[in-house]
Amino acid sequence: xxxxxxxxxxxxxxAHGAGAACDSPFMxxxxxxxxxxxxxxxxxxxPYMQRSIELGSKRPPDKMVLLQRHFMEQISMVKPxxxxxxxxKSMGGRVASMxxxxxxxxxxxxxxxxxxxxxxxxxxxxxxxFTRLSMPLHILQGERDPFGKRxxxxxxxxxxxxxxxxTAADHDFKPTKSSGLQQRQLISAAAxxxxxxxxxxxxxxx
Length: 206
What we know:
Blueprint: E1 10-15, H1 25-35, E2 39-44, H2 47-55, H3 64-76, E3 84-89, H4 91-97, E4 107-113, E5 137-142, H5 150-153, E6 161-166, H6 183-204
Parallel strand pairs: 1-2, 1-3, 3-4, 4-5, 5-6
Helix pairs in contact: 1-6
């Protein structure tokens, strides 16, 4: 963890995936790894997830328009004291990438940790909006993610989308045993890459 005397270099509003809350083991590990790179992480639960927690029963995600509205509310409440980035795990990253962000909010880029390109085994792609992105979208994807494998995406590209592949990882960045890697290592690698991109963006804006 960074020293409390060192000011954060940026703030990342990080949304959870469809099936696990903002304090899931994955989200906790990722937030901790990002904090180690002096990135202040702000997490939140979408309303459907909060209701699920309160009622003790699983609920499906709200419609996209409601998810987008709640994400925008989170952005609007943030103080303008740090460079701002947004993103999320799986569905959370997709929601972030679909926001219609005004220039006044000064969001620098979007990070998607395991983008759900399509439902596993189905040819229903969720990339139509990629051609309309107004800012960079950086996707950190496991090579064997069933929501979008490297072999499926190797010949695809979009002007404002950058892909960073995590070796032998699945949708939750869990690697194969034969790789000799651990999930925590891959999450840390994703956080390090995120930090490098933020550094490049901040340097270019000086």
